[in-house]
Amino acid sequence: MTVTYRVxxxxxxxxxxxxTLSHHSARLKPRxxxxxxxxxxxxxxxxxxxxxxxxxxxxxxxxVFFIVETPHNEMTIxxxxxxxxxxxxxxxxxxxxxxxxxxxxxxxxxxxDLLEASEMTCPSCFIPLxxxxxxYAALSIRPERPVLEAAEEIMRRIYQDFTYDxxxxxxxxxxxxxxxxxxxxxxxxxxxxxxxxxxxxxxxRYVSGYIxxxxxxxxxxxxxxxMIGGDASHAWFSVxxxxxxxxxxxxxxxxxxxxxxxxxxxxxxxDDMSPVKGIMTGGGTHTVSVDVAVCPITGK
Length: 300
Description:
The chain is of the alpha+beta class. It folds into two domains: 3-86 and 275-298, Immunoglobulin-like (Sandwich), CATH 2.60.40; 93-257, C8orf32 fold. The protein has six helices and 14 strands. The protein is globular. The termini are close together. The relative contact order is 0.23.
């Protein structure tokens, strides 16, 4: 069933002393995909930017760049969009090509799709390929094993082995430290999953977006599962499956992307899809608060 959502993402920066000049780039506008249709999308900034433009980055994501020259002690960025989601129909994991066959295709790409996917086999800023990660991945990734079956098991193991703990890590926490602690948040779990797949020459990318959070109104409402990672930006990983394309897997919630996930975009790791990044003059110390609401307006 197709579900239509209204999403509101509000970020508020507070500064202990005035900011006199700031340059920011925001990746908050969702992208059109085969399973996601964007009905409307806009971003507002307060104070009003003196300059604002929109461009498409190397991965096809929309980046909004703006400059604020009005002195301010607080900046508010609000993204609003409406999108309809149709759940993908995935291939049978057992019928997908083997890990060895997939890695061989990616190592010598001869089609545009394979060439694009091969970019996601390499280490990146937040995802170095380490012996520790490869050892962890080797329990699931074997040459003869179907690639989607292996990726699904990686997702399931991260869900089972790791504890969701927002206080355990920051974006600067090295991936080996996350692996050792077995604690972190959705971006950490996505990075671990991607590193596992890339360690064996498979293509995996970082997906940034949102997830619908179900609330249990009554204890007997067994069908209402409360998702982890709602009420903020969410992240998961996507694996390339030859003869099909990309399959999105959410290790934080141990599930394939269905009608609860909304994608903003993707890249090599978090560095490519940070919701907001920038530089400023002044500001002193600062605080950040983020509020996300994902509201279904049609469908289930």
